[in-house]
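Per-record layout

source: Marinomonas spartinae
name: 4-hydroxy-tetrahydrodipicolinate synthase
length: 291
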Amino acid sequence: MITGSLVALITPMTSDGAVDAKKLDDLIEFHIQEGTHGIVAVGTTGESSTLTHEEHANVIRQVIATVNGRIPVIAGTGANSTHEAIDLTRRAKEAGADACLLVTPYYNKPTQEGLFQHFKSIAEAVDIPQILYNVPSRTACDMQNETVVRLSSVPNIVGIKDATGNLERGQALIEAVPSDFFVYSGDDPTAVGLMLLGGKGNISVTANVAPKAVATAAELAIAGDSQGAHEIDQTISPLHMNLFVESNPIPVKWACAQMGLCGTGIRLPLTELSSAHHEAVKQAMIQAGIL
């Protein structure tokens, strides 16, 4: 199973919003050199909602080809249509992804039974390890722990990215699911806390700009070293907060551009980071030792 710091990778774009394939390759090499344990391609942070299906599949194929087996690649393949999610998941499997990450359906607000049937249908249709993704702040859909426990017995469903930021709820989930069903954090401010409670990794936005620190903190937290993990996490905690001053991935793409990792391109309806927030993000990067 995949553990540790799993970067929710941005999708670099040119100024006109086209995917920048050269910068994507450079980003992958940067993360491998910095010790990132795995890459999540075309998740929410990768602007999956505004890429075409062909672009989506192409980015996943490129990430897998460039990584070339050096670290695991998890493909974002969720959708608010079960049929669409199956199609994206099938394409990711054909490309050679190690696993897929499937967000809860957004906007249409399914019931808990609808969520169960949605994810069960995808798991039955495509034979690849699948990680659920619950982020109610973005989707207006909250998958309850009881539903996750039901899904944990479905073959191919191997874990969940819990982005609720609720440690009490996360601990209850860890205790309720089988030991071979992995709970990952999807919330940087509480990630170390969840891993110390038994979480197996952090699918991280902050790792885009501070990969080595996030990876080391994850290793220490998973090993049970609370003091060491918290000491490192404290140095990057300003990033956890300031990379969300506007909707993700607006701030993190701006931060990556300041580091020379990519250009400032982003796709509408998202726009570049407002100038009013530049100083706050810059100061967080300075405090983290990045600039």
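summary: The chain has a mean pLDDT of 97. The two ends are 34 Å apart (CA to CA).
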